[in-house]
Amino acid sequence: MGISGSKKVISHGLKHCTLWKADRSPPCRAVMMALDALNLSITEVDVNMDKGEHRGPELAVYNPLQTLPIFKDRELILNDSHAITSYLAARYCNSGKFLPKDPGGRAIIDQLMHYDSSILYPRFRAAAYPILYQNCKYVMPQQVCAIECAYRDLECMLVGRTWLGGSWPTLGDITIAATLSTLNVMVPVDPQRYPRLSSWLYRMSEEIYYITANKKGLGEFSRRLGELLEVNKRVTC
């Protein structure tokens, strides 16, 4: 997966696993980055969300919520990116590097994932969906303010830390990076106002799994948004 020829050789091929995904989706890219970080290769199926393929009867059997990603490992089916990445790390990676084995370390990663699922991603969705699907031509001022508040949260979380999840990047960093890099397209992270967050995002952008599994889909999202947005109508708070 990712960009062909630009990453390390995959050491674990899981032919019994399938991922249905759309590259421009942040949750899908979180799973894709986790797979590359964990050195796992699985069967991938691209789904065209613009054509409503994720709502088709075949995928509805796997996910009644009609969202992506969808992950299948033999008889197990998971539909939430946070659950998928945690499962992959716990089931197929013994090192504990990306998902610590000790309860305290694991709780920190869970906390970051809950922040993404309850705060960061909903703010992305509230800002992006009106543009993508409702003919809105700019990021609404209230959404800009909500995103800026999240940036302030993350800036505070990084006090005294290089990475959000600990001494090195973890699944928590990967999850936040997928959403934050996409938010950054709509409401840029100002390095003057958020120096720690800006530096963290830059460091994440240099990780090989970010390059192989996030960069392409992020570019697709940026191009799509550029076709729809009226630039220079953003505000800050």
From TrEMBL:
Domain GST C-terminal: 102-225
InterPro entries registered for this protein in UniProt: Glutathione-S-Trfase_C-like, Glutathione-S-Trfase_C_sf, Glutathione_S-Trfase, Glutathione_S-Trfase_N, Thioredoxin-like_sf
UniProt domain GST N-terminal: residue ranges: 15-96
Protein name stated in the entry: Uncharacterized protein
Organism listed in the record: Loxostege sticticalis
